[in-house]
Amino acid sequence: MGQITLNQVTKSFGEAQVIPPLDLEINEGEFVVFVGPSGCGKSTLLRLIAGLEDTTSGHISIDGKDATELPPAKRGLAMVFQSYALYPHMSVRKNIAFPMRMAGIDEATQKAKIEAAAKALNLTDYLDRKPGQLSGGQRQRVAIGRAIVREPAAFLFDEPLSNLDAALRVGMRLEIMELHEKLATTMIYVTHDQVEAMTMADKIVVLQAGVIEQVGSPLELYHTPRNKFVAGFIGSPK
Ligand code: ADP
Ligand code: MG
After folding, report:
1. Which amino acid residue places its CA nearest to atom 15 of ligand 1?
2. 137 pocket-lining for ligand 1 (C-beta < 6 Å)
3. Which of 213, 215, 227, 237 has the most CB atoms within 10 Å of its CB?
4. CB count, 10 Å around CB of 196?
5. CA distances from 106 to 29, 114, 115 (A)
């Protein structure tokens, strides 16, 4: 579960091609980070995988099945939005339950899954609070909880920590990595922060103007950057 293949995928907005033909292989259980400067196409690429944008050409397959034409709900992936996407008038419990209610899952299953997610995210004591009564980090954990209960083949994160202050970011980074260890589910994580990329990733995808400059482990990119852009961006001395 969670193997994603992009084959000659392109994306244009009007005349502007923001993703030239791109191939990418994401393996089951991998923690993959898309990194690159603002405007390089990270969010677009993630949204193409999620199905929130249509490809202009090319194919996306998920776990061996062609997903290119599938709507987001049929792809089995969960996009984790920034915490401000929570419903402020609903309790944490109801926020986490929301996607299951929409999917018509029975109450007993909902309850069990909410409790398991709350346990995994250290939210057990906060289930009856409203988002406004939580810290930024706790709110972000609720947003992740809402994704966990769907048991997705992969989690897609788009700069999930950019609204948090620096100290909180470090803590949340560790929590997301811990969650990846626990769930062993594929995670694709978008950031423009080199430190986040280098500390979190199994595999880093370095993007510039929609082009993959290099794919590799943090150590590979550090020791053998393919070009000056990668070296400069990753902070390698080469
Ligand atoms: P990043 O997430 O790396 O900052 P984006 O994927 O958001 O970059 O954007 C990549 C490029 O595509 C940018 O030039 C941006 O202006 C353009 N773009 C993104 N979404 C749209 C859209 N809906 N319509 C037109 N241009 C877009
Ligand atoms: Mg973006």
Report:
1. 39
2. no
3. 213
4. 21
5. 29, 12, 14
In the chain, pLDDT over 90 holds for what percent of residues?
A: 83
Dig out the tokens for 156 from the structure: 């897609």
42 lines ligand 1 (CB under 6 A): yes
CA of 223 to the centre of ligand 1 (A): 31
> Which DSSP state fits 225?
-
Gap from CA of 35 to ligand 1 centroid (Å): 14
Tell me, rounded to whole angstroms, the distance of Cα 209 from its chain centroid.
20
Q: What percent of the chain has pLDDT over 70?
A: 98
Tokens encoding 47: 């949204």
CA distance 7 to 21: 8
CA distance 153 to 123: 23
18 lines ligand 1 (CB under 6 A): yes
Instruction: Find the helix or strand (DSSP H, E) in which 171 lies.
Output: helix 166-183
pLDDT at 84: 66
49 in contact with ligand 1, CB cutoff 6 A:
no
Find out whether the beta carbon of 41 lies less than 6 Å from any atom of ligand 1: yes
Indicate if ligand 1 lies below 6 Å from the C-beta of 44: yes
Angle subtended at Cα 79 by Cα 75 and Cα 82, rounded to the nearest 5 degrees? 170
CB distance 199 to 165 below 8 Å: no
The bound ligand whose nearest atom lies closest to the alpha carbon of 162 is: 2
E strand intervals along 92-140: none
Q: How confident is the model at residue 238 (pLDDT cuts 50, 70, 90)?
A: low
| ipTM given for this complex | 0.99
